[in-house]
Amino acid sequence: MPIVVKDLDKVIKGLDFEKSVDKLTQDILVTLSKMLIRMIKEKAPKKSGEYAESWVIQNTSAKSVTVGTPKTKLHVFLEYGTAAHPITPKRASVLRWEDESGVHFAAYVSHTGFPAKPHVRPALKRWEKQVPDVIAGKVKKHWKIVK
Q: What's the Rg (C-alpha) of the chain?
């Protein structure tokens, strides 16, 4: 038979556990955030490692923690890939590039696309499965009366 607790915040305030709850909440949020970052870094493509290492806790408040990367454009390309598409000049009339065979000019080039390398979504799936155990462990740690 399930136990349903409604208005838990009122119950906790009535028991004067507010400070304990704040510490517990922060401990849970920070632990879960660091765990998610570690999982993303493990799955992230690592050419130089710079992208994987860019994942950090970006913001913390009393009830939330934001995890992210300043490399958001790169994240989207890596996570979802791109379809084949033309590349056209933005500030000139033609594209120019150099390689080992010389200098080249073109009005446009056809990019073959970039395959997806999912790393955040698989990390989130793994992380979600572990969240209940982390929360239970933190509750036991903070309130010794819980067995």
A: 24
**How far is it, in rounded angstroms, from Cα 135 to Cα 25?**
9
Query: Which residues lie across from 102 on neighbouring strands?
Result: 99
Instruction: Indicate the domain borders of the chain.
Output: 1-69+117-147, 82-115
Task: Tell me which residue of 141, 145, 147 sits closest to 31, measured CA to CA.
Answer: 141
Predicted pLDDT of residue 146: 44
Nearest to 69 by CA among 39, 94, 40: 40
Cα separations (Å) of 77 from 16, 53, 63, 116, 122?
Answer: 48, 17, 31, 7, 16
What confidence tens digit (pLDDT) does each residue in 94-124 have? 999 999 999 999 999 999 999 999 999 999 9
Residue-level pLDDT at 15? 54
What are the φ/ψ torsions at residue 54 (nearest 5 degrees)? -75, -10
